[in-house]
Every structure is written in structure tokens, then in C-alpha cells.
Write a structure and sequence with these properties.
The chain is mostly helical and 788 residues long. Helix content is 54%, strand content 6%. The strands form three sheets. It has a seven-stranded mixed sheet. The chain has a two-stranded antiparallel sheet with strand order 8-9. The chain has a two-stranded antiparallel sheet with strand order 10-11. α13 links the parallel β5 and β6. α4 packs antiparallel against α5 and α26 crosses α27.
């Protein structure tokens, strides 16, 4: 029996003039799948399959949403399936009362209402986030620097017929796309395809424009309109993940509540992307790793998503030369600031000279206007053409009490534009960390130490080839073997301490010191091996948790099946127990000088016993955690520190539940395993005291070992709170340092991660204090010409 989805899929295929075989080949699915979906024989299409079909058919956003809606909502009356289903989205209060379809006229589907309400919540948090960021970066103090643009060369844009979505045979004319910052949304809306590329050299204001676009678009946004969300595209690897999947992953990172289960087994983030409710603002195409820009542009061209893309001109032009322009996209290029712009802006940022209205910028502006061909005038005119350099000049020479702007004309110290830019970049950090009496929350950091720590962070980002400073990856700039050894060392020392302290309640101090050393060595080794295979060998990071723990009340739907967790826990416990028991048996036999055959036989027996003990305990304990997990609130748009604290609370609650349960199960489970095993293996030295000791130490030690190796908060603790400060690469109070750097304007926040204020600053700090001067921009783009 055919369904609405079957009929719609068949109609869309015929409108695209495709046979079932052709559609199957395009979508990469089987012909039998297509045939079964169109006849209704397959009544449960997966969202992944529907996505492939929509891409192959080249559907518009509204058509994609309708196809997805009819695929998911198949219960009688068009209602959302039962809320107890683990694959359906939690319905926000506003959507719970959505009207049902009636005979008097069509209404929007419940899926439409759910995602529309979620999109509204995302819009509110995005607007609040970027308003705060504009305030933090002093964009409106005293007013935004002018950002203007002009059309680019024709070879960097698509055909105007494609941009204007004209039918074949039409005679297209170019659109008028010139403008300035406050008109960016109006310019974008003139483009029928909804695709715009903004080019500009380093520091020209591309990110400022992206933020202003998002905020102005949100002001005029209707309930059904897409939400502009800024994504730092530099961290995207198009060879490893599709654009839509990457967008959904970024949404889940910055809005953890969107990881809640959504339609068809997906999550809310994927639902928003799939139904066109997110307008991607892709900032920093030029920051994509070398060699990946061409596949990135090809991947962008494989979609029809409306978007705004920013890039430096050289990198975009190189990618276009290798493949093609961004399909259906118009393009503009940001222009340089003028002398009139500087004359209007810089004096308003400085204090007036005593007794008169002039400021320290007047001599500089006079030199630029009256002596533009001198060495000083030429150098300064070449530098002060971008908002980045102007804001750095303001920070160093307007905001600092002893910053005399006339120093910029000193050709003895700044003989070239490059030396002048390095001066501004160097002194920006020094100025940002100058002592400020009565500065409120700002801490007193030594400028040289702060620069050293910032330099390590910049080098760390360069090694990872990403602009995103993620707290859960701060140790991942080290080699995988080093990370594994550090993790194993910290866990081993922790377990040795726990075993040594707790064990004294049962045995002598001398015995327990030896037992603690052995336990620490073994558990460190085994957790290190587990960490290597589960994390380091994959060169992956342990991602922050998207759930919270609720002991009482609350909805328990995270997509995890308790039975699956139980089986995973039992398998891990079995492997760990066998390894622990065998190695412990070998060590005990060697210490007691037992013959080798007996040592091996006893070690195998110990491995079997400990494997059963830990398997029977770890499985139920891990499965139990699922019953207390619930998704984070949909409105939870987090900054880096609140995400860290949320994960810390989640891990603490997990350990409070898991540790005693695991300990009790190990202790009493050992009695249940040992006594029956004695009938097969012979006499076993075990009693209630030994069971209590093992249960207590295993509960505490196992919980800490798991936390340090397999949670993002634990990895943060191992590297950012212990190892990196211990080796002098970061301060002991890393959280305070990062937050302070953000308040000083050295770092910025982009959702759940930090970034350096600008990529130029990151690359400059990564060079170190004694690096040679550059002769060009880090991007290789030409310097700006004289101010006019």
C-alpha cells in the first residue's frame, strides 16, 4: 500500500526526468530500495537514505522538508509518534499544542512546528552571543569602522543566469552589489540564489561583516526563516565528513541541547540542517588546511544550500582555478580604508591633549595627508588600510596611557611596513597585559609569561591546523604516544595512591605500599592500552558529553540503549579483568619464586576469575548510568567555560553513581564467582575482607581511571591542570588565564571554543619572540597601497 511519502518520491523522481535506475545510481542506493519505497513495501525509510535521495533529486529546501516530514510522520492522522519512542524529538511546550490538520484547511506538520520552535530558540541564543562578542571587541566604540566592498572579477563569480535563477534563453544582467556594512543583509537579499562570497585580505573585516550580517538578519527574521549561524569553516575536513554532517556536529558542539534525539533516529541539529532552517555563514575558507580547499569547494558545489562564505582572495582564486567557482554564487571584495576614514575614527579613540581638543593622532594624520611620499608616510599608509591594523594601532597608541601615536612615524625603528605591523602585533599583547589599577576582574599576569603561554596555545593550534581552541583538546598537540604515556602515568599514580591509602584499612602499611605500587603499575598499563586503542590510535579527541545526570525526575531519552551499554561494559570489564588478573598472578608468582608452569596456570586462573568479576560488575554499572542520563536543555548555548563546568558536573555525578555500584558489584560478585570456581580450580584464598577491600579500591580506582582516560573533563584535568602547567607550557590556573585573555581582547569566543582575536595574531605569536620579521602577510597576499 502506497503512502504519502511513496507518492511524493515517485512524483519528484518523474519531475526530475529520472528512472528508478538513474536515481539509484545518483543517490548511491540500490534499485530495489527505490522500488520498495515507491511501492510502499519499505515503510521505514532511514533519514540517511532520504537525505541521499533529496541530494540526488536536487530538491529545494521546502521540498527537502516535505520529503523528510512525510518519511517520518506516518502514523494515523499525521501525528508525531508516541513520545516514549527513543527516536523522536522532545516536543517543546510551544509545539506540544500545535493544531492538528482539519478539513477546513491545511496546517503545518508537527515536525515543522517542533523544528520551527527549536530554530527560534537557536536564533535567540545566537543573537545574544554575537551581541556580547561585538561589545567585547569594542566594535561600536565609538562606532564601527567602515567596511565597504565592490564586485570582484567575473572569473570569480558564476554566470549571472545561474545567480539570478533565470530560465534557459534569458538575457541576464549583473546585480548591483556594492555597499557597506549596514547594508549587507539588503545586498544579500538581492541575490536570488542566496549564495554570496565575500573576499578580503587579512584583517580587512570579513569576520566583522559576518557578525553584522548574522545580527541584522536575525533582527528581520520571521518565524519560518532560516537562522544565520556563523561557522569557522577552517576546522572542516571535507574528505572526512560531509558539509551537512559537519554543520550538524558544530551545532551540537555549540548548542549541546541539539544533540537530543530527533526525527527518524537523527538529532535536532541534523533536523535543522536537513530542513533548511540553518543559513550557514562560513567564515574563513582560507583557513582550511592546504590541499583541502579544492575538495571543500567541490563539496560546497555538491549542495544547493544558501550560504555566505568569506575568504582571502588568493586562496579562493587558487581553489577556483583548480575546480570551479562556487555554484550560483555572486562575489564581492572588501576595499581598503581611506585617509578620511582614519581621520574620522582615530582621534575619537584617544584622550584630548590638555587645554585643547587635539589628540596625539593629529601629527600622524597630518604626515599622512601632507607628506604621503616620505618613508614614514608610505609605511604607515600601507599598514593602516585594514580594520585589524587600525584597531591594533588604537589599542597600542590610544588606549594605553603612554602610547604616543607619533612613534609610528619613527623610521629608525620601523623602516618597512612589515616592521611596523610586527610592532603593532608585539605591543598589542604587551599593552593588553599592562598593569591596570582597579581593573576589576582582570588578573595581574606578567606580560612576558602571558606571551609565552599564548605562544604555546598559538603553536598548538598551528600543529592541529585549526583556529578553534577547544579546551578538551589542549593536550592533543603532543604526539599520540606521549599523550598515552602521560595518561597512563597520571592514572597509575592516582590508583597507587588510592590503593595505598584505602588498603591500610585492611593490611599493614609496608604491605600496602608494595601492593599500591603493583596496582598502580598494572592499572596504569591497562588503562594506557585501553586509551591507546580507544582514543590515541584513532587520533581522535574525547568529545564533551551532551547529556546531564538527573537522579530524580526528568525525561530519560538520550538515544542510548541500556542493554547496549551493559554489553559494552561487560566486554570492557572482561578484557580488563583478564589482563589485570593474569599480570597480577605473574607478579605474585615471581615474587614467591613459584615454578614457571605453576605461575602460568595460576595466572590464567586469576585472569578468568578477575575477568568474570569485572565483567559482571562493569556491565550493570555502566548500563545503570543510561537510566539517569537526559539530554541537555535545548536552549543551552554554552561558552567554553560553562561547557567545561557542565561536563565536570556530569562526570562527578556519573562517578557518584557508578563508583559505589561498581564497587559493591565487584565485592559481592567476587564472592559469587570465587566459591563456585573453587570447586573447579581448587582451593582459592579469598574471604569477605578481601572482597570488601577489592570492591572499595575497584570502585574508587576504576571510576578515576575511567574519568581520566575516557571523559573530556578527565583529559582536561590530565593535560591542562597537571601536565602542561607542570612542564611550564601553561599556567596552573588555565581557566582563569583563558577567561582573562578573552576579557582583554586577545581571545574571542566562537560558541563553545576560543579563537585568537585574528589569525594574524595567532601566527605572529606562534613564531615566538625572536622570530625573524615577515616580508609579507601570512597569507601571502599583497600589502595594501597608499591611503587615498
Amino acid at each position: 500500500m502506497t503512502s504519502e511519502f511513496s507518492a511524493l518520491l515517485k512524483r519528484l523522481r518523474r519531475e526530475a526526468n529520472l528512472t528508478q535506475e538513474a536515481l539509484a545510481e545518483r543517490a548511491g542506493v540500490g534499485v530495489r530500495t527505490i522500488r520498495g519505497l515507491e511501492t510502499g513495501e519499505r515503510a521505514d525509510p532511514r533519514v540517511t537514505t532520504v537525505r541521499l535521495l533529496a541530494d540526488a533529486l536536487g530538491l529545494r529546501p521546502e521540498e527537502r522538508e516535505r520529503l523528510l516530514s512525510t518519511a517520518v510522520l506516518r502514523t494515523p492522522g499525521g501525528e508525531v509518534p508516541d513520545a516514549e519512542s527513543p527516536t523522536e524529538p522532545p516536543v517543546p511546550p510551544a509545539a506540544a499544542s500545535a493544531p492538528e490538520p482539519t478539513a477546513s484547511g491545511p496546517t503545518r506538520s508537527p515536525l515543522h512546528e517542533v523544528l520551527a520552535d527549536v530554530a527560534d530558540q537557536v536564533a535567540q541564543t545566537v543573537a545574544a552571543r554575537w551581541r556580547r562578542e561585538e561589545e567585547q571587541r569594542q566594535v561600536h566604540d565609538p562606532y564601527p569602522l567602515p567596511v565597504r566592498w565592490r564586485p570582484v572579477a567575473e572569473e570569480l563569480t558564476d554566470h549571472w543566469a545561474n545567480i539570478r535563477r533565470l530560465p534557459p534563453g534569458s538575457a541576464p544582467t549583473p546585480l548591483e552589489l556594492g555597499g557597506q556594512l549596514d547594508a549587507i543583509v539588503d545586498v544579500y537579499r538581492r541575490i536570488p540564489s542566496g549564495r554570496l562570497v565575500v573576499l578580503g585580505r587579512s584583517g580587512s573585516g570579513k569576520t566583522i561583516l559576518a557578525v553584522r550580517f548574522a545580527l541584522d538578519h536575525l533582527k528581520a527574521r520571521g518565524h519560518a526563516d532560516a537562522v544565520p549561524v556563523i561557522f569557522s569553516i577552517g576546522s572542516w575536513d571535507p574528505t572526512a565528513i560531509t558539509l551537512r554532517d559537519w554543520l550538524a556536529a558544530q551545532l551540537r558542539r555549540d548548542h549541546p541541547g541539539l544533540a537530543a534525539p530527533g526525527p527518524g533516529g537523527t538529532n535536532l541539529a541534523e533536523g535543522l540542517v536537513e530542513t533548511g532552517r540553518i543559513l550557514p555563514v562560513l567564515d574563513g575558507f582560507d583557513e582550511i588546511a592546504d590541499g583541502l580547499r579544492r575538495p571543500a569547494l567541490e563539496a560546497l558545489n555538491a549542495t544547493t544550500l544558501p550560504l555566505l562564505l568569506t575568504s582571502r582572495p588568493a586562496e579562493y582564486a587558487a581553489a577556483v582555478a583548480e575546480t570551479d567557482v562556487l555554484t550560483s554564487a555572486a562575489a564581492v571584495e572588501l576595499t581598503d580604508l581611506t585617509l578620511d576614514d582614519l581621520a574620522a575614527y582615530l582621534p575619537r579613540t584617544a584622550r584630548k591633549a590638555r587645554g585643547r581638543s587635539a589628540t596625539g593622532w593629529e601629527p600622524v594624520l597630518h604626515a599622512l595627508r601632507e607628506r604621503p611620499r616620505t618613508q614614514a608616510g608610505t609605511n604607515l599608509a600601507a599598514v593602516l588600510t585594514t580594520p585589524l591594523m587600525v584597531t591594533l594601532a588604537r589599542a597600542v597608541h590610544s588606549d594605553a596611557p603612554d602610547g604616543d601615536p607619533a612613534a609610528l612615524l619613527d623610521t629608525r625603528h620601523f623602516g618597512t611596513p612589515e616592521e611596523l605591523e610586527d610592532h603593532l602585533l608585539d605591543n598589542f599583547v604587551t599593552t593588553a597585559y599592562r598593569p591596570r589599577p582597579g581593573s576589576g576582574p582582570l588578573r595581574a599576569w606578567d606580560p612576558e609569561r602571558a606571551r609565552h603561554w599564548l605562544g604555546y596555545l598559538a603553536q598548538h593550534l598551528n600543529r592541529l591546523d585549526t583556529p578553534d581552541l577547544e579546551w578538551w583538546r589542549l593536550g592533543y598537540g603532543m604526539r599520540r604516544t606521549t599523550r598515552t604515556l602521560v595518561t597512563a602515568l597520571v592514572i597509575g599514580l592516582t590508583i597507587a595512591l588510592v590503593d595505598g591509602v584505602v588498603g591500610t584499612l585492611f593490611d599493614s602499611v609496608a604491605y600496602q605500599l608494595l601492593d599500591g605500587l603493583v596496582a598502580g603499575l598494572l592499572t596504569g598499563l591497562l588503562f594506557g592500552i585501553a586509551y591507546w586503542f580507544m582514543v590515541a590510535a584513532k587520533d581522535a579527541a574525547v568529545e564533551p558529553s551532551a547529556v546531564r545526570m538527573r537522579i530524580r525526575g526528568g525525561e530519560r531519552r538520550t538515544g542510548w540503549n541500556p542493554l547496549r551499554r551493559l554489553m559494552i561494559g561487560a566486554l570492557c570489564g572482561l578484557v580488563f579483568g583478564v589482563g589485570y588478573g593474569f599480570v597480577r598472578g605473574v607478579l605474585n608468582g615471581a615474587i614467591a619464586h613459584v615454578p614457571l608452569p605453576l605461575v602460568l596456570a595460576g595466572s590464567i586462573g586469576d585472569g578468568v576469575l578477575y575477568g568474570l568479576m569485572f565483567a559482571l560488575a562493569a556491565g550493570p554499572a555502566l548500563g545503570l548510568l543510561t537510566l539517569f542520563e537526559t539530554p541537555l536543555d535545548i536552549r543551552s548555548a554554552l561558552n567554553p567555560i560553562s561547557l567545561l563546568r557542565t561536563n565536570g558536573r556530569t562526570v562527578a555525578t556519573q562517578l557518584l553513581v557508578w563508583s559505589p555500584v561498581f564497587g559493591v558489584l565487584v565485592g559481592f560478585g567476587s564472592l559469587a564467582v570465587v566459591y563456585p570456581a573453587a570447586a573447579v580450580l581448587g582451593p582459592v584464598a579469598w574471604n569477605l575482607t578481601a572482597a570488601l577491600k577489592l570492591g572499595l579500591i575497584s570502585g574508587l580506582g576504576g571510576a578515576l581511571g575511567y574519568a581520566f582516560s575516557l571523559t573530556s573533563w578527565g583529559q582536561w584535568t590530565v593535560f591542562s591542570r597537571i601536565w602542561l602547567p607542570l612542564t611550564g607550557r601553561l599556567p596552573w590556573s588555565v581557566v582563569a588565564f583563558l577567561e582573562d585573555a578573552y576579557r582583554r581582547g586577545v581571545l574571542r569566543q566562537a560558541g563553545a571554543v576560543y579563537q585568537f582575536r585574528h589569525a594574524r595574531l595567532q601566527h605572529h605569536l606562534a613564531r615566538g619572540p625572536r622570530a625573524p620579521l615577515r616580508t609579507s602577510d601570512p597569507d601571502g597576499s599583497p600589502r595594501g597601497g597608499p591611503l587615498k
